[in-house]
Amino acid sequence: MEFLDFVEGVDLSKINHSYVYEQDQLKEVIRIRTIDQFDSFELKSTDQIAILGVLEDRGNKENMGAAMSPNVFRSYFYKLYKGIGFDNIIDLGNIKPGNSLSDTYFAVTETVSQLMKNGVIPIIIGGSKDLAYANFLAYEKLEQTVNHTSIDSAFNIGDSSQEINSKNFLSKIVLHQPNYLFNFSNIGYQSYFVSRNEVNLIDSLFFDTYRLGMVRADIRENEPIIRNADFVSFDISSIRQSEAPACAGATPNGLFGDEACQLARYAGMSDKLTSIGFYEVNPTLDFHGQTSHLLAQMIWYFMDGVFNRKQDFPACNKTEYIKYTVAMEEQKTDITFYKSEKSDRWFMDVPYPNAKKSKYERHLLVPCSYNDYLVACNNEIPDRWVQTLKKLR
User: Fold this and answer.
1) Is 253 exposed, middle or buried, given 0-12, 13-18 or 19+ CB atoms closer than 10 A?
2) Is the Cβ–Cβ distance between 233 and 108 less than 8 Å?
3) Is the pLDDT confidence value at 355 over 50?
4) DSSP assignment, residue 254?
5) 2-306 adopts what CATH topology?
6) pLDDT 10s digits, 169-215
7) What residues have CB less than 8 Å from 279, skipping those under 6 apart?
8) Which of 216, 231, 293, 229 is nearest to 262 (CA)?
9) Boundaries of every domain in the chain
10) What is this structure's pTM?
11) Sign, CA torsion 223/224/229/233
12) CB-based contact 125:278 (threshold 8 Å)
């Protein structure tokens, strides 16, 4: 397949070459495209997940060395044992850095968009987090409006007048024309890393942001946020330094490792999500491979989520839901909730202008939690409902 021309296969001689794998370890379970399969490797109709390394870190000069992450990650990932249903997984290899950063973006965009067209979920292993911009451009090729969720300690708005880098790539996504971004959500930002100007801009765009303390107070409340995403970018610096030291941007506060794994599993379980990227792991700063090992476990949990999907969204066959209508005493409209009989997950309906129906229809059955239903029962409008309605107007 021509789009694989950008991808170099895995050199197995450089990854645990003396290790003897057991039958149920991932090295023996997944289909690996090796360096000698440049022309012979083909996608199969049954392939579901593709691992794609990107050997690019020029977007973050403060964390040079992150380009080494994909192969180091594999040395830990291949040793993990398969979970239930871990079939139809492929490892395509690595996209090598182009002559310029834009060349690498082009290669990532082309490869990711073609994988998604073939119904395969790409797992991008960076590299620097500005590669999320290339991931976004893949949806432009599909002419699809998207929701982007970023798990990060900062917003990465930066100075849009400068060349794209890891600190301003979000502004490039927001300003990109034509505009295919419907919503952006940040999970885990830390206030001292975010300027008031950035907060005001995010608020003016009706984007959704969740401080670290709120995220950690009840990790389950993050599931609806991630369930509403088409693609997720996961910056390893959102995890505290003691848990993941291999990043120049690592700081004392952040997520714990088990919380990061839980968020990754939520991403995998989302029927709407079609791609994900993990960024900024720098093996030159690692301690006994701790961070690469955590990354391998996070991706294991993501795949476990994929193979436990319930297929109850965004198909929206409402006959498979239990419908709850909450009458709001001080509002002109009721709020309708749906509870999936397959997964017990909650959604709420948001009204929209008829003129915008065709463009935004897939975003209007909004994932929510049981807590949102309880809020409405107390005659208060849930924040998720209000934020979505603001975007539509």
Assistant:
1) middle
2) no
3) no
4) S
5) Arginase; Chain A (3.40.800)
6) 999 999 999 999 999 999 999 999 999 999 999 999 999 999 999 99
7) 66, 124, 126, 127, 128, 129, 131, 132, 233, 234, 235, 236
8) 216
9) 2-306, 318-392
10) 0.94
11) negative
12) yes
